[in-house]
Design goal:
The chain has 372 residues and is mainly alpha-helical. Helices cover 38% and strands 4% of the residues. The strands form two sheets. Strands 1-2 form a two-stranded antiparallel ribbon. The protein has a two-stranded antiparallel sheet with strand order 3-4.
């Protein structure tokens, strides 16, 4: 039995790599590192050396041989550089977080953080762990700047001059009439006056000064419209040539249509209040002509309401109404003969200033008496 054991021990030693045997000896403090180095005359180093392995050595050797395959398998998987680490890793049986981190050259803390794990967390075969950028966390990208608050719409202020209308002002600035009304808290029935400040939404004052693509000749200066005549109760306003011509036309049309003198006085007072007895080409919003009739409310096209004769026929209404079915003239107002001059005029004109016609009554009656 002793011979068999000795032979078997020698057989085992014969299969142990020299490096392992030397390592074993150092581990057991049997020799120093220098003594562990193999020598060709090892058999004659000390007298009585038979090559047998003592029981203590055999036990240690057996343990070392058992450990060797495990150590070999642990170190056989190459470490992967961080730059080559996969984005994810599927956990295998026997894996640990620290082992996975070491395998790919990452820190355990980084792998835990990337996967929302703690040091007490368990992992399971088949579980997928994130590894991308776990080893070297890139500096956070600079936060995108917060979007700037939208600039308030640019607005310029326009000072109304005589003859302006909201629609005309809006068209001059290239915006809609509705936008200008809304920006100024006005309605479609609002009146504007010379000197009134009108806000133009979405425009700047520089818009008026934008140069054209090609130089153009400066337009000839346009004379400001003559101021409208004013009146007060009991006063007779003197007629200019233009006013007289239009007063005569209103009287003549009334006579042809069989309108009573009271109706002609109403027409003269209405035209005096609305246009100063002038065929003006401007007014509130789209109002035009002697009676400031509005194309947008059915009184006719701009050309039609600027025709003094047609405009007068439309004011009188009745059988000669050119807008029959669309607008209502004086003769179409039930009981107009029993109304005051200002009430009758207002019934046709529907003005924002219903009492304004009264101050022209004295002048209207005088003009009719003078012109006929």
């Amino acid at each position: 039995m002793a011979l068999a054991d000795t032979g078997r021990s020698r057989g085992i030693l014969g299969t142990v790599p020299i490096a392992v045997a030397s390592s074993l000896a150092v581990t057991l403090n049997l020799v120093t590192p220098a003594q562990a180095a193999p020598r060709e005359d090892r058999a004659t180093d000390r007298a009585g050396d038979t090559g047998e392995v003592s029981p203590l050595e055999r036990a240690a050797l057996g343990s070392t041989i058992g450990m060797t395959p495990a150590a070999s398998s642990f170190t056989s998987a190459p470490r992967t550089a961080v730059a080559d680490a996969p984005a994810t890793y599927r956990v295998q049986s026997g894996d640990t977080v620290s082992g996975i981190a070491a395998r790919f050259g990452l820190s355990t803390a980084a792998v835990l953080a990337m996967n929302g794990l703690s040091w007490k967390s368990l992992i399971f075969p088949g579980q997928v762990l994130a590894l991308a950028q776990a080893g070297a966390v890139a500096a956070p990208a600079p936060a995108a700047p917060a979007p700037a608050a939208p600039a308030a719409p640019a607005t310029t202020v326009y000072s109304v001059v005589r003859g302006d209308t909201i629609s005309g002002i809006a068209g001059r600035f290239g915006v809609t009439t509705r936008a200008v009304l809304a920006a100024n808290g006005l309605s479609s029935s609002s009146l504007i006056f010379p000197g009134q400040q009108i806000r133009i939404p979405g425009m700047t004052a520089a818009a008026l000064d934008t140069p054209t693509a090609a130089p153009v000749a400066a337009p000839a200066p346009v004379a400001a419209p003559a101021p409208l005549p004013t009146a007060s109760a009991g006063q007779v306003v003197a007629l200019t040539d233009e006013m007289r011509a239009n007063a005569q036309l209103i009287i003549a049309v009334g006579r042809r249509q069989g309108v009573p003198d009271q109706g002609i006085v109403v027409a003269l007072a209405a035209a005096a209040q609305e246009s100063g007895l002038r065929n003006v080409r401007y007014g509130d919003r789209d109002s035009l002509g002697l009676f400031q009739q509005r194309p947008s409310t059915g009184w006719g096209t701009p050309e039609q309401v600027l025709d003094p004769t047609r405009a007068t026929l439309a004011f009188y209404g009745g059988a000669g109404n050119p807008n029959a079915g669309r607008t209502r003239g004086l003769l179409d107002i039930p009981g107009w003969m029993g109304m005051s001059v200002t009430q009758a005029a207002q019934a046709v004109q529907i003005s924002a200033f219903p009492d304004a016609y009264a101050k022209w009554e004295t002048s209207a009656r005088t003009w009719l008496a003078q012109l006929g």
